[in-house]
Design a protein that fits this description.
Layout (H helix, E strand, L loop, with lengths): L1 E2 L4 E2 L30 H11 L4 E4 L21 H24 L5 E4 L17
Parallel strand pairs: 3-4
Antiparallel strand pairs: 1-2
């Protein structure tokens, strides 16, 4: 497979398992229903849930722009307004997924460990030590 945006080849034959995602929204309850959220942090949350983790801590997922930057970068080189819109979509996807976790009664505790995260509006903040 080739990442067309960055022209990077990925040689998937090096991997034993590839998790395919055909949907982005919500939370899948099995490996054949993996949800991506179109975001690596969301994928990590979905993966942790399917692996049976009961306590999940988000580190560095802020989903907002403070000044001109997020925690670690300036928006992948995108225009500020476009990146801000992308972060709003990610936030909406996280918000819906986190609500679905409660609705499906998935027994997992999810915490934000980023003081400036927009997710602190919908999940508890817990200081990372």
């Amino acid at each position: 497979f080739i990442d067309k945006k960055r022209n990077i080849p990925y040689y998937l034959n090096q991997y034993d398992i590839i998790i395919k995602s055909y949907q982005k929204d919500g939370i899948g309850l099995n490996w054949n229903d993996f949800r991506s959220g179109n975001n690596s942090g969301y994928c990590a949350m979905q993966l942790a849930i399917l692996m049976g983790y009961k306590n999940i801590h988000f580190i560095g997922i802020d989903l907002k722009i403070t000044g001109k930057e997020t925690h670690f970068h300036g928006g992948y080189g995108e225009q500020d307004e476009l990146f801000k819109n992308k972060l709003n979509r990610y936030y909406s996807t996280f918000n819906a997924g986190l609500r679905e976790i409660k609705e499906k009664r998935i027994r997992v505790n999810i915490y934000s460990c980023s003081k400036k995260s927009r997710l602190n509006e919908i999940i508890p903040y817990k200081e990372f030590i």
